[in-house]
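Case study 2.
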Amino acid sequence: MSEDWNTKYGKRRVRRDPPTLDEAIFAAVGITDDQDQQAEIAASLMGLPLENVQAEVKKLGRASARVASTRVIAGEQGAQRSIVVERRVARRFGNDKRTGA
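Prediction:
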């Protein structure tokens, strides 16, 4: 899929590709935790039938359930406690450049 238009510098073309199924599911996972809603979002992004996408979302959900972000650490006197590790993305702004004085 491409689109052409004329500018004062000549003809310009932009290539637009739909996302892959993995990219669409990754985007849907970032929006919601519900697998049915993830499948609907990914299906709408891809233009695929909902049933095909639901199967892939469930496969990905099972795979990510195996790789849990919970670690068990033996504490005092052998007692176990669970620690959940979450990754936070720090937003960096382009105008936040600090210069030395």
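Residues 2-84 form one domain.
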